[in-house]
Design brief:
Blueprint: H1 5-11, H2 32-37, H3 47-68, H4 79-84, H5 96-102, H6 108-115, H7 120-156, H8 161-165, H9 182-203, E1 206-207, E2 210-211, H10 214-228
Antiparallel strand pairs: 1-2
Helix pairs in contact: 3-7, 7-9, 9-10
The structure holds zinc ion (ZN).
Zinc ion (ZN) binds near residues 22 and 38.
Amino acid sequence: MLPTLTTLQRRKPHIYDLSWLCPQCNSSPETLDHLWTCPYILPEFSPFNTFKTLLLDLRTVCLGKFLSATPLKFLPDSFTVEFTAMDCWDCDPPSNSCLRLARGLIPMSLTSFLGTYFSSSTICSIFDTPLHDFHFDLYVQIWLCRSVFFNHWESAQGITNKMKSSTIGPSPISHPFSQISPAILTPFLATAFLDSWTSWVFSYIIHGGSWISHLDFWRRLTVQPLLRISF
Ligand SMILES: [Zn+2]
């Protein structure tokens, strides 16, 4: 289970105020499902847009594999249309089935449709690698970026590593930003990120032979607060 803000609010309500919403969009509680569907303020940096792209890539890859696999019976011409119309690929708005895929579960509707044409072992082996890649990409392209952002957002809230590692219950939190909403705090984050930028680039992941876009990530963290403050 990824430690989303709602999970942290449940575990340590004395540190994570129950009224705090997703630090990236400030519009919904940051649940596991929200991680992938967060609208964010800039469409090009939106986790939701990334999620949609990755989900449709998964659909394309899986479809190609099924079309070239050996079926139990002849595949009708309608197979491609029916496969691509399954509700698990419906992500705008996100269906429960597509959120199940994000949790690593293959929806029943999908397996029962595919079970008409393929054995269970074929279905599982075809989904295995693409689903793994899908989760890896979600983790790298959404979760890691969000976590770096979140770490600095926590600092801006006055939340220290010492407080987080403490097993002691509620204690008074006193810091200069405690009465300021997360939305107003975000400009402070831009400079904080500059300090950690280089270490982040050298610490995080090369996937598919190319770096995650440094420039995009930098812009996401620096441009977004300036726009947000105009709200
Ligand atoms: Zn959000």
